[in-house]
# Entry
Amino acid sequence: MDTNQYLEMFIEESKEHLQACNEHLLELEKNPSDIAIVNEVFRSAHTLKGMSATMGYEDIANLTHKMENVLDIIRNNGLQVTPELLDVVFIAVDQLEEMVLDIAAGGDGKLNVADTVQKLHLIETGEEVPVAATIVEAKVEAETSQDNWLSYDDYELTVIQQSFEQNYQTYEISVELREDCLLKAARVYMVFELLEKMGDVIKSSPPVEKLEDEEFDNLFYIALVTNEPKDDVQKKLMKVSEVTEVKVIPVTIEQLKNRQNNALDLVEEKLQKEVHNEAKANITKSQPTEAEKSTPSKGQTAGNKTIRVNIERLDILMNLFEELVIDRGRLQSISEDLSNSELDETVERMSRITGDLQNIILNMRMVPVETVFNRFPRMVRQLARDLNKKINLEVIGAETELDRTVIDEIGDPLVHLIRNSLDHGVESPEIRKANGKPEEGTVVLRAYHSGNHVFIEIEDDGAGINRQKVLKKAISKGIVSEEMATTLTDKQVAELILSSGFSTADVISDVSGRGVGLDVVKTTIESLGGTIDITSTEGKGSLFSIQLPLTLSIISVMLVELGEEIYAIPLSSIIETAIIRSSDILNAHNQKVIDFRGKVVPLVFLEDVFDVPKESNEDEFHSVVLVRKGDKLAGLVVDSFIGQQEIVLKSLGTYLTSVFAISGATILGNGKVALIVDCNALII
Amino acid sequence: MTETVDVKNLKVVVFQLADKEYVIPVSQVQGIEKLIHITRVPKTPSYVKGVINLRGVVTPIIDLKNRFGLGESVLNESSRIIIITLEDMHVGVIVDSANDVLDIPMDAIEPQPEVVGGLEQDFIAGVAKLDSRLLILLHLNLVLNPIKSGV
# Structure
C-alpha cells in the first residue's frame, strides 16, 4: 500500500496522541485511582497502534500493543498505578515519540524497543497471578450470572416479557472484534444489520451511537429478541469478518427480573434511604457517565472545524502580504499624484480590505503558548525525580496566544528558567520541612496578555535569592566591585544572576549551574524585544517575569528623518516627542542635556551616532524623541518627525549581525528600506 | 555523456571588477539585479554599502572593489548587483558589470600564483585560463565572512 500520502497526517496525529498520553499519564500520577484517565491513555495508545500498524511501523505497533496490555490490566483494576510502573510507561511514550520524530525526519521509525517491551511484559505478567485470577473470576461470574452484561429498564423488560408471551426468544449476545480491527464502526454496522434481519435489537452496551463512533474497545453486548435458534445466530455473526468471538446466551424473563432486583437490592443497601425509582435511574445511568466524561474533549475538537495548514505556507502568505502592503503604499502615493477621484476611491477601498486581511493573517499566526508549555510537565517530573525533590508544576493561561516567531524562540529560555527554579529555587523536602514549608514545592508557570504585551512568569516558593551569596560570587567573579556591592538594591542584586559568567550552585549539577544559562536567557529575551524582571524574597521564593511583544513581525513605529535618511523608532520605547530650543540645551560634563519636566535627560544626536552625511545647518529648534529603557530616559535628537506607522519587521540578514544601535529594518511604502533604531543600545 | 561533461566543467558567472574578470559558480548565484536604492547602514565597515529591498527581503550589499581594497566603485548604468547565496546567507555584491555565463573545464583551474600580493590575494581560490582570458575564481566564504558587531 502506498502510504506516503498519509504520512504527514500520521505524524501529526501520532504527535497529538503522544502528547495526550503524556498529559494524561501525568494526571494519572496525581490521581492513580482514576480509571477514566487510564481509559483516555488506553484510547490514545490504541489509536496509535492501529495507525502505526496500518502504516507498517512495526516497532511502534509492537510497543503500543504492550503498553495497551498493561493499561488494560490497570483499568480492569488488576494493577495498582505506581510511580515505577508509570516510569516504564513514560519510557515507552518517550521511545514512541523518538520513533515518530525519526519518521518525521525521513527515517524508518525503527528503534530497539526490546528492553521496554520486556519491561512492560514483566509488569504485565509479573503480577499475573493475582491479575489473571481476578480477570478469570470476573469472566466466570459474567458467564454464570451475566451480571456485568446488560441492565434493562421497565420498558425494555415489558418488551421482553411480551415477546416471551409470543414465543420469541431473548438472547444476550457478546461480540468481540479483532484487536487490530480498523473499521470497527463498519463491523458494528454489519453485526447490527444481520441481527435486525433475524429479529429486534432491544438494547446494546455501549449504546448504538457510541458503537458507531467507535467508542468502545473490542467487545460489545447486544440484547436480541428473535425466533431463530441460538446456534444460527452465533454462526451468522461469526461470518462477519474480524469478529473473533460471539457468545449467545438465552435469557428468561425470570432471570432478568431477578437480576434487576438483585441490582436494586445492592443499590438499596448502599444508598439506604433512596427511593426505588431514583435507584433504577442510577443503575441505568452509571454505565454511560464514565464514557461521557471522556467525550467532551473529542466533541469540542469536532465541533470546531479546522484544517491543518503547514506553517511554511502561512509564512509565505505573510511574505506575499507584506509585499502587497508595500505596493499598496506605492499605489496610494501614485493616486495622490494623479488625483483621479475614481482611482482614489478604488485605492481607498483596497487599503481598507488589505487592512482587514492584515488582521486576519496576523491572527492566523498566533499560536497558544500551550505548544511550548506542553513539554514542561514531563520535564519537571523528570527533573524533580533526578533532584529528589517534590515539585508541583501549575500551568496557568496556556491558552494565551503569541506570534509564532516569538513562540519558536521562547522555548529554550523558559527551559533554562524552569530548570533554574527547580535546581536552585525549590529546596529539598528535608530543608523545606525544617523551614516549616510543605514538602512539595510549587512552581507556577503563568502566561497572560496585558496591553500590547504578553507576560510569562515563573514563580516558585523556594529559597529565593540569597543576597550575600550572590554578592560574594559576583565580587569573586569581578562582576561588581566591593564598594558597589553595598550600594546595590535587592532587585539589582537579583539581576546579577543574569550576568554572564555567573553561577552560584556550589555543586555543579547536571541540571543547571554551568554559569552560561541565565545570561543567555536575558540576551534571547532582549533580542525578542522583551525584558526580564526578577522579584525575590529570601526564604519565600522568586518570581521571574518575562515581558514580550505580542508580535514580532508587525510593530508600530515613529518614522523620523535624519538628513536624507529615514529611521524608525519603536513606539514601545517612546514616551513622548517634543520640540526644544537650542537655548534649552544645557551642558553637563561634556554631555548635552535638557531639563524635561524637572528631570535631567541626556540628549543623543542621532546624526552623530549614525554618521549621517549632511551639511551642518544650525536650527534654532530641535525635534526630540524621548525614549526610555527601564527607568532611564534619553532624548533622541532628529531632524523631523514623519509620523506613526505600522511596519513589517525584517531582519538585516545573517551577514550583518548585531549592527550598533540598529535592531532591524523595514520596507517603506516607496519600496526603500528604513532601519529600526534600537533604543536600548543608545541609553547607557 | 552529459554526466562526464558535468563533472569536468564548472558553470560560472563572469563579472568585471576594475580591469579584471572574476567568476563565481552559478550554483551560488541567486540572481543579478540592476542598481536600486541602497539604504546606508551606519557603523559598518566601509565596504558595506547598506541594504536593499530585494522583493521583500532586506539584503545587505557590499562593494566588492572596496572589499578588495581597490577603491570605491563608481556606480553607473552597467553596474550590477550579484545576489549570492551561501548556505542561509544572502548577500549582494556590487560589480562593474556582469557579462557572461561560462563553462570552465575543471582542469583549467589552477591554484593562484604566489606573487599576486595585496588584500585581494586572500580571497582568490584559483585562476582559470580560458583562451586569452584570465578568470579569477573567488573564495566566497572568505569574501563574505559575516560581520560581527559594529564599532
